[in-house]
Amino acid sequence: MGFQEFLGNERIVTALRGALRTKRVPHALLFTGARGVGKFTLARMFAQAANCERLPDDFCGECATCQRISQLADPQTLLEQGLAERGESADAATVERVPLILQSHPDVWALVPDPVRLKSPVARPMLRVGQLRAVQRAAYFQPMGRRRVFILDGAETMRWDVANVFLKILEEPPGSATLILTAPSPYALLPTIVSRCLQFHFAPLPQAAVEKILKEKTDRKPTEIKLAAQLAEGSPGLAIEMDVEAAAQRRRSALRILERAAQGHGFAQLFSDTSALAKDRDSSFEHQIGVFYGLLTDLLELTSKVKEPVLRNAPLAKELESLAKSVDSAWVLRAIAGFDELYVGARRNLNRQLGLDALAASLAPAPSRASVTHS
Q1: Which helix (H) or strand (E) holds 109?
Q2: Residues with Cβ < 8 Å from 11, sequence gap 6 or more?
Q3: What is the pLDDT of residues 249-299, one digit of tens each?
Q4: 129 has which bridge partners?
């Protein structure tokens, strides 16, 4: 029991243990990296180690404090309880007045993007001002144990005007509390927030490590384990919760969109594909864009003539190699820049399908774009 259970990113674990051992714990940490790579898990472990009754720089997992905080290992249960207590028909005012806070110990809070309702959640959950104001009030309370820890999972979902509420806490940090933000990238947050946090970036785990975790924690068949590990791109949490066939289908659909865009014809079918992708409620739009990034990364390696490329989407190697023959690195970089703009636009409520359609059309060869414009 303890930090040794956490696989991968050993340097981050070593740094956190050193901070606890020397009692020089930062007031704000920023964990960045892909979804499912372990950011929330390590934040919860840090909260246990910061309050363990037996160990100064690790957690025993057996004392009463460790056991209570360990309930955050399954945040979905606490989330469902919180939504049920607030009521399924909560209006906007109630959502802010009764913020969603996951808490199994007085000194440790976890905030997750609020889906508002359990039965019919909103399409884009986000951290809300009510949650941040609750942290703002509670951060300065003296801890019952050694240290108060506030985990803000999905910090990138804060609207930037709302994020200013959180910035006030960082400008006058409490001495006995640590705030841990998780996000896919520091660029998804206000620079003024990022500059006030000690940053740690979580690298993807090797495929073999992901397969090991899947063998230990799931009862999947060996072939499913290998495919899930490949599709998860180094994120064990994503691999565990993954519907393997659905994930594979999303990658095939995304690749088909790139293929049609590169060919510059078949726009009726292309727009039908983008429509289906934009309406997919089983996967967030940000995750869907991440699928495109993975495919484009593979294409960039192939078009750049990298020796022995290591493809993220190995099951689609043949299709990717075929597409790489009809595009060049400049096309791939243009596509990546287009998805960067689409990601930013999605945060500003850009119509997702129209954004995808415009991007796909812009990637078509010049003559085809002209024919579409005049049609």
Answers
A1: strand 108-111
A2: none
A3: 888 888 988 888 888 766 677 777 777 776 666 667 777 888 888 889 999
A4: none
- The token pair at 48 is 């246990």
**With the C-alpha atoms ordered 356, 362, 367, 371, is the resulting torsion angle positive or negative?**
positive
Q: What is the DSSP string of 266-317?
A: -HHHHHHHHHHHHT--SS-HHHHHHHHHHHHHHHHHHHTT-SS---TTGGGH
> Residue 148's closest CA among 174, 121, 177?
177
Query: Are the beta carbons of 338 and 359 closer than 8 angstroms?
Result: yes
Q: Are 90 and 116 in contact (CB under 8 A)?
A: yes
With CA atoms as reference, report the closest residue to 176 among 200, 219, 147.
Answer: 147
Residue type at position 333: L
201-10-27 Cα angle (round to 5): 55
End-to-end CA distance of the chain: 65
DSSP 55-72: -SSS--S-SHHHHHHGGG
Alpha-carbon gap, residue 32 to 186, rounded angstroms: 7
For residue 147, give both structure tokens: 């240290």
What is the Cα–Cα distance from 205 to 182, expressed in whole angstroms?
A: 18
pTM comes to: 0.79
The per-residue pLDDT for range 149-175, each reduced to its tens digit, is 999 999 999 888 888 888 888 888 888
d(CA 182, CA 315): 30
CA distance 355 to 131: 31
Judge whether 9 and 202 are in contact, CB under 8 Å: yes
